[in-house]
What we know:
Two copies of one chain form a homodimer.
Chain A: H1 5-15, E1 24-25, H2 28-34, E2 37-42, H3 52-61, H4 65-70, E3 72-75, H5 79-91, E4 95-100, H6 105-113, E5 117-121, H7 128-139, E6 142-143, H8 150-167, E7 172-176, H9 181-193, E8 198-204, H10 209-216, H11 241-248, E9 251-255, H12 257-269, H13 281-287, E10 296-301, H14 308-315
Parallel strand pairs in A: 2-10, 3-4, 3-6, 4-5, 7-8, 7-10, 8-9
Antiparallel strand pairs in A: 1-2
Amino acid sequence: MTMTYQHIEAARQRLKGQAHVTPVMTSRTLNQLVGADIFFKCENYQRVGAFKFRGAFNAMSKLTDEQKAKGVLTLSSGNHAQAVALVGRLLDIRTTVIMPDNAPATKRSATEAYGARVIDYDPDTTSREAVVDRFDREGNYTLVHPFDHEDIIAGQGTATLELAESIGHLDMLLVPCGGGGLLSGSAIAAKGLYPNCRVIGIEPEVADDATRSFHTKILQTVPNPPTIADGTRTPSLGNLTFPLILKYVDDMRTVTEEAIMEAVRFLFYRMKMVVEPSGALGLAALLSGSVKPVGKVGIIISGGNIDGPTMTLILNSEPVDH
Amino acid sequence: MTMTYQHIEAARQRLKGQAHVTPVMTSRTLNQLVGADIFFKCENYQRVGAFKFRGAFNAMSKLTDEQKAKGVLTLSSGNHAQAVALVGRLLDIRTTVIMPDNAPATKRSATEAYGARVIDYDPDTTSREAVVDRFDREGNYTLVHPFDHEDIIAGQGTATLELAESIGHLDMLLVPCGGGGLLSGSAIAAKGLYPNCRVIGIEPEVADDATRSFHTKILQTVPNPPTIADGTRTPSLGNLTFPLILKYVDDMRTVTEEAIMEAVRFLFYRMKMVVEPSGALGLAALLSGSVKPVGKVGIIISGGNIDGPTMTLILNSEPVDH
Lengths: 322, 322
C-alpha cells in the first residue's frame, strides 16, 4: 500500500466529532517582524494537549473487533502514551504503555489517569524494542507504533487539512520532526492540496538525524539527543516515515536550543500560548533565520505539554545583551 | 446620559476590523469537574494582550479633531497604558501616560514601544490624581480615564456581545472586577441580550472594595491591596461604574490568592493558555466553589500580560497535599 492524500481525507472523516478542530492563530507583530503571513495551527489545544490524539484515534478506531479485544500495546514516554490511553478509554479498548523508568512522573501519572496500564523498563539495560517484543509475544497485543504506522501518519496529516480549510492556499509549511509521523502526514496533505507548497521539516541541531538522513538518503541515528525538545528525542526516522519524507518533503532545517527557547518565550509573552519546546520548532526556524518565509506560511504547533520546571527554566534563561 | 445596550452595540461597530474577535475556548475536563458548560472569552488574545484595547479604541476614535489634536492623557501602570499608546499610534494621536515610578520596567518599556510618552511620579509622596490635575491644567490634554468613562465602559462590553454571538444564550457570566469598567460594560451587554443571565463580579479577597461597596451600597476603598492580581489593585469603583454595577450586576464574590494561582495553573497546564492573575478570577471562583455554576456559563478572561517571575512563582507554588 502506498500512502496518499486519500488516506488523510479518510482519517479526517473518522476524526469528526472526536478530535478538536484546533484554532489557527496569528500575530501582527510576528508578521511585521518576518515579512510574511504566518498561520499557527495550534495542536497544543488538541485533546491530550498534542496532535498525537489524531493518529491514535484514527489507528485504534480502524482496528477489527478481534484486534480491539486483544488490547493495544505501545511504547512512548510522551504525548502518544496519553493519546493511546485516552482513545482506549473512549473506544473501550484495554491499553498498555511501555515507558522508560526515567520518564517524568507527571507523564506516567497522566497516562495512568486516562486508564492505561504502564509498564516500565530500565533503558540503560534493556532496549525498548526488546521489551515490546517480549510483550507482543507473551500477551499477543495489537501494537500501535507511535509514528511508523500508516494510520498514525494519516491521522497526523489531518491537522494540515484543517489548516488549509481555514486559510486556503499555503506557500510554505513548517513542521517539527521527531520520528517523522507528523512531518510525513503533513507533507502528504499539503502536497495533495497545493503541490507547490514548500514543506520543510525542523529539528533541533543536537538531534539532527532526520536532517542528515534527508540529505544523505541513508538513515542516520542520534541516540538520546540532549535537546530540550523532548518530542524529538526519537533516535531516527522509521521504515515508513523515512521514504515518505524523501518523497514529499522539500527540505529539512535545524535550530539551536537557544532558538527553541526564544520561540517558546515569544509564544508565551506575545501570543499567550503555552507551547512545549518541540512545538516551537517552526517558529524557532523563522526567528533564527534558519528558514526565510515566503507568502502564506503554515506552522504546526505540535503540542503544549510542558512541565513547570521546564517552563521556569525557559522563562528565566533570557539571553543577556552584549 | 444613561448607558444602555445601544452604546455597546455602537462601540461594536467602531471596533470592527480594529479589535480582534477573540476566540472562545472550552475544556471537557473542566465541564465534567464543575458540572456545567463553561465558555471562556479569551481577551488574553486581544491586541496588547487584554480587553483594554476595546475601550481605548472606542473612546479615542470618538474624540473630535480638536480633542485629538490636544493629545490624550491617561493614568495607568498596566494594560490600559499599553492600549492607549497603541490606539494613539493607530489613530495618530499623541499620548501621555502617567505611571507610578515603581511600575514594572517591562510595562513601561512596552508602553513606550507603542509610542507613548511616559511620565512617572512617586506614589509615596504624590497622589496620582494630583499629577493628572497638574498635567490636565498645564497641557490642556484630553483625559481618557481607564474605567470611569462611558466610552471605555461601552468598549469593554463588546467582548460579551461577541461571546453571545458565538455561543448564544448565557445563564451566567463571571467577570473580574478592578475599577469596574469591564464588569459594568459586560453586565449591560449581558442583561441587554439575556435579562435572566446572572452576572457576577469576582474580586480578590484582599481587594474586596467592590464586593463590600455592592453589599453596603456605600463606596468602599482598599488602598494598595496586596493581591497578585495586579489588574484589580484599583482602590475603588468609580463614580460611573459604581451605580452601573448596583443596577446591572446580580452579585459579587471574592476568591483567595491561592485560588487565583490554582486557576492560573489550570489554564496553563490544562488549557495551554497564558493568563494573568486578574484574568483567572472567574475560573478561580468556580474551582474554589465560591460560585456554583448553572447551565451555560461565560467567563471573561481579561488578559494575559504576566511577567516571567510572576508565572514562575505561580508554577512553583503548587500546594502540598496534607
